[in-house]
């Protein structure tokens, strides 16, 4: 800033010096012009030059005491003594109105004196012969009337001097000669006046041309000065525009930084939401595991209760007769049937729970995919980061999908294994009732060992899954920290580059300003040198002209010097005032620019400090969030570890209690069997001792017929393997007692072509699909399409017999998603083969659903239905 002010002061000092030199040159030039200029006086018809050295009243020819020069003294003296009529007859070319009006009082003066014109002629002639005689006293006024009054004195002097002159000639001849001389003098005077007028005109033209040249030079100089000021103003405007552009660029960069911060906050929020959902899913999985463990414990308790009941029945059967044993067997079968029903209900419940968990997982996956798409759309500007984030999210989604698929397959395998184990357990329970106590004890020990191993395997699998999850979380945290460090380094680098660029721009602006001022100084120096050269040439020329006219212009020079001194003083005052005003304006402008630059610099510094502070606050906030997230993860890990330890301790306690109960039950069972064997031996001994014990058996047999199953009744139906339900995008459920065949066909109809109806050839391009067909115990069949494409699915049903088959149809669309729908197609009687439903996917629109269309048209080819809001056109051709 100091250098900038110093440059401006140097320029101001140079301007003052050059203005002073220019003023001196101009005044010198005017001095020489005035010293060589003649002034014409119309009152007397004379021409004189200014006496620049000294101007006195005697130097003016209009006064009575003026002494004319050699060129005009004789004509002036003669003209003053001419007759009044002759003076009235001669009119100077440039005389004013006063000179033209003055001849009227002359005759009045002549009449007052009563003298003849001839006397005046003689006096004039006598005076004309004495050109060196001084003019009468200063009391006389320079008018013709005053001259007429002074003539008597001249006559007296002439009369006094008459004795000295020779005898006068003849008056007539003298008058004639006088008239002739007067005519010649008047002619010479007229010629002299014309010549002087012509010279005056030439001089005035020269002065006018010179003034015009000076005016043009001044205008040119003023135009150059204005152009320089305009260039300076333009440079200032350009500088302001650059600064404004820099501010706008900084504002845009600040907005971009804020946008990036918002995007990072959104990404952090999305990530937190994903972690929360993952935690909820994990919690739900843990609850499911806990429920499953509780269910296993309940089953074990139920199994123990059943075993206890079986042992009780065997003890009662051992005490009672054969009829009671049959009743007990029938009751045991009934209880077994109830147990199967309960097991079936439990399996259905678990299957519904598994389906719900699978739907929740799919919803979470869909929500996660939608959030990934939104995050990718929002981060389209950051291609590299978006690509990396998208790749990472895709890998995570793929891992999540694979993990979900593995979990689903593991659940299916576990369910199949569990069902296999259930069947084996049921068979083992049937065999247990027929085997001895030793085999039952061995079976119980084996089951306990299997349960222990299975619990150990589940615990190890849970520990491995937890270790993998913690390793993934650590990797994610490390990746996020690395990304944050990289972004912070990139932001720091970008700020350093911007600062360096701003410094370079400022230095470039200073250099440009210095160069511009140097160019201006060079231009001013060149102009001043040219002015000096021209002034020197003009001075030389004027010196030569002054040297030639110096002798003729002494009086004019004095008057011009005084006038020039006054004008120079006025010009000096005016220039001083203008210079002071310019200096004041320049100082005010310089002060304003300095203040503006200082304010802008302060503002830029404040913005930079604010930006740095905001960046530091944001980084501190991000570090605090990362620390909080890390602490939360550590807390969750500690809580999870503590919970696992508690669960492990609880499992060990439950396992110990269960083993103790099993040992107690085995001991009790052994004691009961020993007692039963003893009772059976006593009973057999009693039967062998008394054969009449068979008589009371008949009522018992009759009672057995009423309680046990009748011969006409069918034995209870044995159920097969329970298959878990299968889900898909489309499912057709057919309920009815008749056997039917289900078929599905597909016609491609993408969304891009739904604005026009399909042609007949396109409608014939139909593919037959092989859906998954499941037959359930409730006399229903299900046709499932797992993944539906863009097109029309046609479901057809064909009966095996010729008789009409009444069937009830239900269509499920996306039953595993939140937007799932169930369409009740109602009951239909199918005879042979018939179309049940046509569905347009992925919109899930039924051909029979008129609410999905805004209108329809029918022609000879078929029926066309359309929706004016969505632009859908669907045409089915007649067969």
Rg over alpha carbons: 67 Å
Structural class: alpha+beta
Count of DSSP-assigned helices: 14
Mean pLDDT: 77
Helix content: 55-70%
Globally, the shape reads: elongated
Lateral strand order in the biggest sheet: 6-7-3-9-10
User: What is the chain-wise order of helices and strands?
Assistant: HEEHHHHHHHHHHHHEEHEEEEEEEEEEE
Oligomer: single chain
Q: Which spans of ≥5 residues are poorly predicted at pLDDT below 50?
A: 1-8, 59-163, 692-723
Classify the beta-strand content into a percent band.
5-15%
Topology:
Layout: H1 2-35, E1 38-41, E2 46-49, H2 73-80, H3 84-89, H4 97-101, H5 105-113, H6 117-128, H7 144-161, H8 171-319, H9 322-378, H10 383-434, H11 437-549, H12 554-689, H13 697-707, E3 730-735, E4 740-748, H14 760-764, E5 766-769, E6 772-776, E7 780-785, E8 791-799, E9 805-813, E10 821-830, E11 833-841, E12 845-846, E13 855-858, E14 862-867, E15 872-877
Antiparallel strand pairs: 1-2, 3-7, 3-9, 4-5, 4-8, 6-7, 8-11, 9-10, 11-12, 13-14, 14-15
Can you walk me through this structure?
The chain has 14 helices and 15 strands. With 879 residues, it is an alpha+beta fold. It has a five-stranded antiparallel sheet with strand order 6-7-3-9-10, with no helix packed on it. Strands 5-4-8-11-12 form a five-stranded antiparallel sheet. Strand 11 and strand 12 form a beta hairpin. Helix 6 packs across helix 7. It starts with a helix and ends with a strand.
